[in-house]
Automatic annotation (TrEMBL):
Signal peptide: none annotated. Its EC number is 4.1.3.16. The keyword Magnesium does not apply. Homotetramer. It comes from the Eukaryota. The gene is HOGA1. It is an enzyme of class 4 (lyase). The lineage of its organism: Eukaryota, Metazoa, Chordata, Craniata, Vertebrata. This is 4-hydroxy-2-oxoglutarate aldolase, mitochondrial. CDD domains: DHDPS-like (cd00408). Catalyzes the final step in the metabolic pathway of hydroxyproline. InterPro entries: Aldolase_TIM, DapA-like, Schiff_base-form_aldolases_AS. Belongs to the DapA family.
């Protein structure tokens, strides 16, 4: 059972959060929040003793805040959220809210394995400043995560969330795709505004866009590696780890796609594929297993003037040969 304080927050927050959605963000009566745009999934900096380094987090945000991002994703996969305590997850969101520009959206990853824990985390993240909750699929009992089970889970979370909900499908980490039929059903919920799809299957993204076209529902590509393709089939933006180091270039790709400059967009996209494959965690499982994930992303952040620093155990730093291969992916495409 949810505790009394959480239920009180839910009752008070539902009206406040949904009113804010249609009143402050949306362009018309009854419209859901517009999440279109580019979002870097913010990494969590750690000290040499594996404590969260809030000072470095704020420094990174001040630098990232100079780019025309729509907002920031906090406590996504690249934020190492499974390695943080609940209190650390909330403190990171609070610090990001305080440090980021006020006109940006803050999407906070609130997913947990149980529905009850996800509701409690979502309510708590709303209280510390999240504008929307990005909820990853529960996966520990993946064999029982049928469409019906996932629809029930997300419906309950969205019913009780004081802020809008963004679905999050990342099969490389969870071992399961949020089924298209479940996405279509959930798109009809008034408090579910879209999905971040990190699977890299552009056919699937296009199908979701097509089947939800009558709903006020938006799709974000989960990687810069297929951002152009995502825009081509109807996605409205992306949550792109590569934007942590090549923010200007990812935003430029967005502009080229939105203005129909497809030839230039294609050239830029080609130059982003190898660095993206090498340094991000999301994407098809084959990319994740053969490349460098969060340690690679953090290493490139160090190269580009941000603080990457170490990951939390059990993630290990790159070996010298891996670092050399990572650097080659950036230098060969003209970024270093």
């Amino acid at each position: 059972m949810l505790g009394p304080r959480v239920w009180s927050s839910v009752r008070q927050g539902l009206s406040r959060g949904l009113f804010r959605t249609v009143g402050a963000w949306a362009s018309g009566e009854g419209k859901k929040v517009d999440i279109a745009g580019i979002y870097p999934p913010v990494t969590t900096p750690f000290t040499a003793t594996a404590e969260v380094d809030y000072e470095k987090l704020e420094e990174n945000l001040h630098k990232l805040g100079t780019f025309p991002f729509r907002g920031f994703v906090v406590q996504g996969s690249n934020g190492e959220f499974p390695f943080l305590t609940s209190s650390e997850r909330l403190e990171v969101v609070s610090r990001v809210r305080q440090a980021m520009p006020k006109d940006k959206l803050l999407l906070a990853g609130s997913g947990c394995e149980s529905t009850q824990a996800t509701v409690e985390m979502t309510v708590s993240m709303a209280q510390v400043g999240a504008d929307a909750a990005m909820v990853v699929t529960p996966c520990y009992y993946s064999g029982r995560m049928s469409s019906a089970a996932l629809i029930h889970h997300y419906t309950k979370v969205a019913d009780l969330s004081p802020i809008p909900v963004v679905l999050y499908s990342v099969p490389a980490n969870t071992g399961l795709d949020l089924p298209v039929d479940a996405v279509v059903t959930l798109s009809q919920h008034p408090n579910i505004v879209g999905i971040k799809d990190s699977g890299g299957d552009v056919t699937r993204i296009g199908l979701i866009v097509h089947k939800t076209r009558r709903q006020d529902f938006q799709v974000l590509a989960g990687s810069a590696g297929f951002l152009l393709a995502g825009y081509a089939v109807g996605a409205v933006g992306g949550v792109c780890a590569l934007a942590n180091v090549l923010g200007a270039q990812v935003c430029q790709l967005e502009r080229l796609c939105l203005t129909g400059q497809w030839e230039d967009a294609q050239k830029l996209q080609h130059r982003l594929i190898e660095p993206n494959t090498a340094s991000v965690l999301t994407g098809p499982a084959s990319q994740v297993t053969r490349r460098f994930g969060i340690p690679g992303l953090k290493k490139t952040m160090d190269w580009f003037g941000y603080y990457g620093g170490p990951c939390r155990a059990p993630l290990e730093e790159l070996s010298p040969s891996q670092e050399e291969a990572l650097r080659l992916d950036f230098t060969s495409n003209g970024w270093l």
